[in-house]
Write a structure and sequence with these properties.
alpha+beta, BirA Bifunctional Protein, domain 2, Rossmann fold, 5-stranded mixed sheet, binds adenosine-5'-triphosphate
């Protein structure tokens, strides 16, 4: 764990040092849980967004895009129940004055018991060797059974209490489990209270009550309120989807872990409108499709897992997360939710407008059900960065830090490097740069020794370096160096564009 913490610290400082992520308003000592993306960060972020958009909108005939405003009519948030229910149960430790989410404290506690079970299993696996039957062991080993019973009991007591909003019982569970504050180590807790996560602001004249509006806490509602517009103007037939990317705002009380939990962040959401009764089929479909998308980035499957929700949100009848193994453990990256007709129904009621689909086959109208996929762009960025950051010892004894970002989404695709700053090499390099730059984000660099230039490109994850030397002037060839293997091959300048194009698209879903 200490190693992972250290690794996480290094990733954060690398992100700053190389222009990926800066703290917001840093010269004023920053603003908590708000970040700015620097010159390479913005490229990576744009590329992830574009890769998602292509996969969702361009590759699916029945999914179209939308870009709804951040400000919405305040009744939207009443209908969606965000005004009344978008809150977290929080409690403070009176000694450390740190504030915690009650559900996170209990979930962490359960995760520790699960860890113990895993350790028992690993010990037994070593002891029994090939004859080990994990399923039987999990069902019969007294200690494991005791742990599992404990987890079941905690869940049976805690989640219904949360559902009933019985905050006294929520606190009692934390006390009975003797959960202590990780900072002070004491169990001196305040009562549990609900904190709404929406940022409110004023529109127009300050004194009018009606002018209070909210910064959207999710992009989904912009899609729901435009359901009819898009369906009619796009002549959409159920099943169909609407996709949107954009900023969302949450006044997270416990904001930590860098860009994992921010107060201003970006979501990439897709609401898929379906016939009621078909939701489980589509839920399974999107669970699988979304995992395929993640794996297509080339990150090993072992870094991902599904996590079914124990406590379903009021609008959902099935929900799971795709979790990623960050340096601080497996955490939610994307949610896949079967939201029933909750949102469209609520907007129907509050707006008085019919939000229904007329099925030409059955001649019936109905309010469609919705399966949504909701992924955080910043969290995906962090997942990719955590996977990509690599420290390597090279054969010559030197070290390098390289970001193994999948080429398709790497900020800079090609660095064009004249070996020396004379003999006509810079001019030739500029020519090549001009050929490539229309289709790929390239960087031209002639400063310092070639080795140092390679290191600089490794550190920002540039997958290919093209070097122009004296031979180039004779036979019109260059060397192309691949970032991860550091292998170099000589290729014709004429073939370069095609080659880069193939390499950048390799292993991806297009
Ligand atoms: P969490 O339980 O971590 O607070 P959530 O379940 O509230 O997340 P959703 O409402 O399902 O999250 O939002 C969908 C996605 O938006 C999440 O999977 C996550 O990737 C992203 N997201 C949510 N809150 C934040 C945040 N504060 N900072 C960055 N990304 C976020």
């Amino acid at each position: 764990m200490a190693n992972q913490e250290e690794l996480f610290r290094k990733i954060i400082s690398h992100a700053k040092e190389y222009g990926f992520i800066f703290q917001s308003s840093e010269i004023y000592d920053g603003l908590s849980a708000v970040y700015d993306y620097g010159q390479y960060g913005v490229e990576l972020k744009n590329n992830i967004r574009e890769y998602w958009w292509k996969n969702m909108v361009q590759f699916n005939e029945n999914i179209v895009g939308l870009d709804a405003a951040i400000f919405m009519h305040p009744t939207v948030w009443k209908a969606s129940s965000h005004v009344d229910a978008f809150s977290d149960p929080m409690l403070d430790n009176k000694d450390s004055r740190k504030r915690y989410r009650a559900d996170v404290l209990v979930e962490d506690y359960i995760a520790k018991i699960e860890d113990k079970i895993n350790k028992e299993v690993e010990k037994a696996r070593k002891r029994f060797g090939e004859t080990f039957d994990e399923k039987m062991y999990l069902e019969t080993n007294p200690r494991v059974v005791e742990y599992k019973t404990k987890i079941t009991e905690i869940k049976a007591r805690f989640f219904p209490a949360l559902d009933r909003n019985d905050l006294a019982e929520v606190k009692k569970v934390i006390e009975d489990l003797e959960i202590a504050c990780p900072v002070s180590g004491t169990r001196n807790w305040t009562d549990v209270r609900q904190f709404n996560l929406m940022f409110a602001t004023q529109m127009g004249s300050l004194s009018e009550d009606a002018s209070q509006i909210y910064l959207r806490p999710e992009t989904a509602q912009g899609i729901f309120v435009n359901f009819l517009n898009v369906m009619k103007t796009g002549r959409m037939k159920v099943p169909f989807g609407i996709a949107q990317t954009g900023k969302a705002f949450r006044n997270e009380i416990v904001a930590r872990q860098f860009i994992f939990r921010m107060r201003e962040f970006e979501q990439m959401e897709m609401q898929f409108f379906i016939k009621p009764g078909e939701e489980m089929k589509w839920y399974e479909h999107w669970k699988e499709k979304r995992m395929e998308w993640h794996l297509s980035l080339g990150i090993p499957a072992s870094r991902y897992r599904y996590h079914d929700h124990d406590k379903l949100a009021h609008y959902a009848n099935a929900a799971c997360d795709i979790e990623f193994e960050f340096p601080f453990g497996f955490k939610e990256l994307e949610g896949i939710h079967s939201r029933t007709d909750f949102d469209l129904n609520a907007h129907q009621q509050y707006s008085g407008k019919k939000l229904q689909y007329f099925d030409p086959e059955t001649n019936e109208s109905y309010v469609p059900y919705v399966v949504e996929t909701s992924i955080g762009l910043d969290r995906t960025f962090l997942a990719i960065l955590s996977f990509a950051y690599t420290e390597e010892k090279l054969d010559d004894g030197s070290e390098r830090v390289v970001l193994k970002i999948p080429p398709r989404i790497a900020p800079v695709k090609v660095a064009v490097l004249p070996l020396v700053k004379k003999d006509g090499l810079p001019e030739k390099a500029r020519e090549i740069f001009d050929i490539l730059k229309t289709d790929f984000y390239c960087q031209y660099d002639e400063k310092d020794a070639i080795g140092r230039r390679y290191r600089r490109q490794d550190a920002i994850g540039t997958p290919y370096c093209v070097t122009i030397d004296n031979i180039t002037l004779e036979d019109y060839t260059v060397t192309i160096r691949e970032r991860d293997s550091m292998k170099q091959e000589r290729v014709d300048i004429d073939a370069l564009h095609q080659l880069v194009s193939e390499k950048v698209r390799k292993n991806l879903m297009e």
